[in-house]
Backbone:
């Protein structure tokens, strides 16, 4: 192997690939990343058998070849190269020589024979823009369960509905749903449960990508590919809860309030919330006020009121304030809509004029 490439491209690939390496006592090759020089590219590969990634780095290839190297050490080295734009890599016996205009270094390498192949899926591809994919995951991932006791909800659920993609996550205390409208509608059935950790890695690996991504799947695997990145993920073998059964079809009370005002008031209430992050939300329709209060015996208490547009009946309920605050990163509208029924039913939050995102928070006093 002998080649020349750009430092920043190589650093991007090595850093992202190294995150996907894994510790496996029976297969030590998983601890390293694979460098493979082919045609006009250096291909960087890594896998932990749960996730796998291939990243293409445009390079001037003099000699082809493949080897394993420590991704963490190489990434750390590249992160501290400040003067040079280009990097030369050359395999010499059991070492990898990495040289720049100002630096010469040698890295230990390892045999690549035991490195497992990364699955190549051949199912029909669904294509969408990478920002759409990332938007869908970001809009819901924080609502997923962090416990592995129920893998089907420690995940991001992705399915096809009326030709569009719908992303959903829940931990049974709150639920987020985001619909991504596609120009080219999907005709084939689609239902995927992506493990939470894998969904988070998808966000990191594809962050900053602006082109098109192709999505392919089998019952057990998902692949995502752009011009320079190919990633595979294991899927959860299970059934996502039929969450639509708990989605309210009507509301006894509706509140429209400025997003900025509501967020600031919630943050104020959070300062005085107890160990359950509990706040009390009260709708006083006749007074035209939305009242928020919280109390902590060790800190104190606070009560605030907001002017709002109110319709329906008076209602009062308690919620986890942090759960409510989480959703506002997914809402860009200046005003938000709050829908309530009784104190035992979920609070529904959405943006005014934006029907693509819906968020449910279960009350604490149910």
Residues:
């Amino acid at each position: 192997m002998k080649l020349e490439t750009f430092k920043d491209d190589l650093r991007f690939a090595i850093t992202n690939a190294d995150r996907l390496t894994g510790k496996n006592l029976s297969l030590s090759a998983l601890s390293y990343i694979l460098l493979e020089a082919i045609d006009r590219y250096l291909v960087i590969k890594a896998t932990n058998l749960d996730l796998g990634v291939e990243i293409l780095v445009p390079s001037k290839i003099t000699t082809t070849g493949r080897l394993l190297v420590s991704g963490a050490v190489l990434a750390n080295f590249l992160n501290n190269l400040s003067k040079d734009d280009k990097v030369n890599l050359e395999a010499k016996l059991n070492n990898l020589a990495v040289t720049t205009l100002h630096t010469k270094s040698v890295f230990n390498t390892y045999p690549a024979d035991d490195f497992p192949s990364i699955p190549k899926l051949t199912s029909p591809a669904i294509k969408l823009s990478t920002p759409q994919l990332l938007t869908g995951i970001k809009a819901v991932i924080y609502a997923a369960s962090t416990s592995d006791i129920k893998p089907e909800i420690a995940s991001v659920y992705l399915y096809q509905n009326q030709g569009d993609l719908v992303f959903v996550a829940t931990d049974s205390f709150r639920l987020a749903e985001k619909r991504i409208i596609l120009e080219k509608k999907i005709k084939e059935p689609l239902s995927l449960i992506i493990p939470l950790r894998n969904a988070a890695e998808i966000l990191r690996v594809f962050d900053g990508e602006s082109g098109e991504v192709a999505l392919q799947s089998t019952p057990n695997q998902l692949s995502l590919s752009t011009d320079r990145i190919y990633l595979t993920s294991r899927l959860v073998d299970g059934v996502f809860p039929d969450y639509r059964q708990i989605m309210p079809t009507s509301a006894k009370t509706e509140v429209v309030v400025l997003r900025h005002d509501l967020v600031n008031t919630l943050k104020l209430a959070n300062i005085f919330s107890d160990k359950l992050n509990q706040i009390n939300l009260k709708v006083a329709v006749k007074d035209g006020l939305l009242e928020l209060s919280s109390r902590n015996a060790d800190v104190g208490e606070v009560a605030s009121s907001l002017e709002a547009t109110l319709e329906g009946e008076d209602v009062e309920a308690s919620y986890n304030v942090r759960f409510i605050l989480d959703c506002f990163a997914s809402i860009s509208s200046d005003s938000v809509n709050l829908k309530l029924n009784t104190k035992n039913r979920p609070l529904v939050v959405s943006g005014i004029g934006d029907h693509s995102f819906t968020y449910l928070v279960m009350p604490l006093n149910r």
The longest helix spans residues 259-271.
